[in-house]
């Protein structure tokens, strides 16, 4: 009985932190950034690793959204240097990326459990690899 209750509790927690918005579609992949802006997609693939952890995503210190497992956010930003960071109760490591106007960036958040505590790794993914992964994610924007 204890095992069943533990499994049910785990499934409840995972369902509470799984993205539930509309699926990413082909029309999103054809979206161009506004003139003078860069378009950024931040996403997490659906996995059990760190499934209960929500990652708040910061761009130059501004919280642009929270990303759960199986979810994505998108936002437009000014070109130039960007400090990208997740804000969690784990170790958060900044990534620095210079963004260009008119370009689209695909940033995947991967969880590395580490030896003592985990961290999210922010990876700049090429479009041809990111789009198939994004198609399995759900929007979590504001």
TrEMBL record:
- Which protein, by its recorded name, is this? DUF2846 domain-containing protein
Return any one Pfam family short name: DUF2846
Enumerate the InterPro entries for this protein.
DUF2846 (IPR022548)
Top-level lineage group? Bacteria
Q: Residue limits of the DUF2846 domain?
A: 36-112
* Record bears the keyword Translocase: no
Which UniProt keywords are given for this protein, alphabetically ordered? Signal
Q: Which organism is it from?
A: Sneathiella sedimenti
Signal sequence interval, chain numbering = 1-20
